[in-house]
Design goal:
about 140 residues, mainly alpha
């Protein structure tokens, strides 16, 4: 199958559309959109398009303090809010953990009480079986007489 010649203008239109959609234009993405084309040709056109983009090289000193301070304050406020929310979440999780631990301790105490009761009943059961065996033996002796 003969491929159509990819033109720079086609790549430019696709790149602008991708940027408008919030995507970063890549050779693979452009090729998927086109459905054909060599990566070399697409990459060459993509590089050419990238060179037309304005570059912003601002040094921190060049940014007005009127912008930096409000942004810094906004970031700090958001950070503090998130930190506070996570502290509350940690406190809540610790409460749940303590409640679960208390339930575990109560279950262990109940288990131990049940184990003691089972041991006591087992001992009584053995004693009763011995008594029954003794009574059976006496009955056998009485029956033989």
């Amino acid at each position: 199958m003969k491929e159509s010649k990819i033109k720079y203008e086609d790549i430019k239109i696709i790149c602008e559309k991708l940027v408008a959609e919030g995507e970063k234009p890549t050779a693979g993405l452009i090729r998927n959109i086109l459905g054909y084309g060599s990566y070399t040709t697409i990459t060459d056109h993509l590089r050419r398009w990238n060179k037309t983009l304005p570059t912003i090289n601002l040094d921190r000193d060049e940014i007005a303090e009127e912008i930096i301070t409000p942004l810094k304050n906004l970031f700090q406020k958001k950070f503090d809010n998130c930190f506070r929310d996570y502290q509350f979440k940690i406190i809540e999780l610790n409460k749940q953990l303590n409640e679960t631990y208390d339930e575990k301790i109560q279950a262990e105490v109940l288990y131990e009480a049940q184990a003691v009761l089972i041991d006591k009943l087992s001992t009584e059961n053995i004693a009763l079986r011995s008594e029954i065996d003794l009574l059976k033996a006496k009955l056998t002796i009485l029956d033989d007489k």
